[in-house]
């Protein structure tokens, strides 16, 4: 097989994470983010890129074909090359990367969006489980994560103090992130003094639910140069899924994350920064260990999704966060991670490098 | 640039109103195993899995691919889920192909499905939204006015749709997998069937089916190890436009015309009617055959119905450009899979694998899917000859 | 296990009931909210795209053609033109309207796009493309944030609109057409 075309990330923007976007509907959430990335590159609208791909989930807003409204934000007249994944937009990015690699596009717009506030997200996501054996039990995602945390605690792999430490760092890092929903100075002792929510999880061990959208523009390195844009190389991207049967998995580890990282070429160099999609504090520890991240790596300098979680866009946002750190010169090489499914069932790893 | 890729296996289930004998996972696995057997492969030979279906609300499972990973041998592999409304079966095939054409993978399994009997698709399509008028007219209520406008513009006789309904069911009677088996259907029977959404009669509309369709797509260097001839992908294209905007051409949507022009250019086709041997086109309501004949450039605008009435699209009348030899969406409609069935049936034709509905000597065929308010399009051209 | 039990165990299970109840607090969107507020006052409004000047009803937040927010509010006429229609004969579960009934794509005067509503008080067989119709509102005390404030549209005694002019009449209707 011939050498693959190099992919450049050239623009990223996301909305603030807020518990409720109020009256704004999906189109109204998406349009400002698209405008922001078009303006960063100097493009008029989606007509100026070769391909568009989005990620969203109908059930979050409770209407079939909810994503179709997203097309109304694009200026898709005349018609455009466009596709959609019922997944986090990090996977929309993956689809766009394939389109560029195969030579059918030199540039692409990716966006993800959700208005999760109209429903009860953990309950909605309980319907993501095996429809015959699990979904009828209404086991919600928080309870499953609690079960996972319990396994880790009982195996002596973490302490509740370790979990609080993750939260403390997230809140502190988020103080420099104007888009974060939850930020502030706190201590492990304060956090451990809070009551359990779904034992062993406390409320702060769980990410908040946020409404919003995020958008990104990628291109071939040649196109990025032609645009005169500073860019970051997306040197690798891979994703893997594991069994849906939780009893068949070692929930204290993330095999699929490790596999994806290896396939994305993460181990070829040092990692300065990592943004991990860990909706629960103990999952950040699982992911950091699965990736073999050490002291030299800054983990979730944005605060991560514990500070704000734009469902269906948070994975793309992790990649966008790393992009912004590298463009700003704060890091030379970083990894970003996205997840989907109960207890980190499916994971994507992207490796970004300074141009 | 794009690497060569080919379909080396197709697999389908039988289509029925209700497949109570299998779970959702069992339904997909049936199609996947059939495709793998056709390709002479096992799950262990597959590098990535691409799955597609129409809205999750049709079965009531949020992102069902998580639950389906085990049944499709996807554990430890990449698995991607596509959803582009009714065109999803076609776009899923194209996304799967891009996994190979990008040089990223050698063998990809792609599966699409719908198990409509597990929920109520008519309800899912018309969930009451507050503030809107509660007309609950379903998909037919949306498309019937557009068909009426086509009839007005083209001056087509009232019975064109009836003719298509009979033709596709006679084709379907040759296909043992087809849901509706109506070898004795007559024009009169269709004309006398209940009017649902004037001008759409019951027998001019697609059924509601359970079913799944799968394909194995392989890179050039992985084609020869399979026992049967490949269907080479000669072109693939997608187009989208908004559902409604001022001045939108709804009868002959530009997204469809542009998509066709793109895929023909890739395959080097100038005159689709002459150069293609057959086509599997997404026709869920009978009148969409003449409308798409025009939209896809098989006929001049306003003239599509003449091809239909002359029998040009009918195998039984010896037509020169058979449309939907398999019986089409009018004979089987597991929504999320319907587009991929079109793509897979096009591949079967050029592989000489279509049994009683084989178009003799077919070497170049088209697969087509559309969705939403006739706004999302996916098309491919496959050929027996390596490009 | 007895033989009976074995036989029972071999019977396939072909279905199980697992009803799903999910509750949503739906919001209409900023632009639709402005439309609904006017509707509650008995006024049909559209919104004009600042890019292409086309007037949308109901406004959804953007001009889908341009991908930009619609802004300027435009009051529309109660009169409209039939762009196309279907007669629905199929009974749909949960739908209180008894078939046959007419669902029409209607363009109100002053707008450039059709919306779907009921056409009633008419002879079904005489409904045609280009026909002039007008809105029949509920009594004012029943008005809410709903399109159902308009019960249905009914035919008007006015000349038909030629097809090429459907979606292009000014808010004054035929009289504003030079």
TrEMBL record, chain A:
InterPro entries to which the protein is assigned, alphabetical: Thiolase, Thiolase-like
SUPFAM superfamilies from the UniProt entry: Thiolase-like (SSF53901)
GO terms of molecular function: acetyl-CoA C-acyltransferase activity
Record protein name field: Lipid-transfer protein
Organism for this UniProt entry: Parahaliea maris
Taxonomic lineage from the root: Bacteria, Pseudomonadati, Pseudomonadota, Gammaproteobacteria, Cellvibrionales
Automatic annotation (TrEMBL), chain B:
GO MF annotations, alphabetized: acetyl-CoA C-acyltransferase activity
CDD domains from the UniProt entry: SCP-x_thiolase
All copies of domain Thiolase C-terminal, residue ranges: 247-381
Source species, domain of life: Bacteria
InterPro entries assigned to the protein according to its UniProt record, in alphabetical order: Thiolase, Thiolase-like, Thiolase_C_2
NCBIfam families documented for this protein: PRK08313.1
Name of the protein in question: Thiolase domain-containing protein
Organism from which the protein derives: Parahaliea maris
Automatic annotation (TrEMBL), chain C:
Domain ChsH2 C-terminal OB-fold stretches: 73-138
Protein name: Zn-ribbon domain-containing OB-fold protein
PANTHER family tied to this protein: BLR3430 PROTEIN
InterPro entries documented for this protein: ChsH2_C, ChsH2_Znr, NA-bd_OB-fold, Thioester_dehydratase-like
Residues in the signal sequence: none
Domain of life: Bacteria
Domain called ChsH2 rubredoxin-like zinc ribbon: residue spans: 37-67
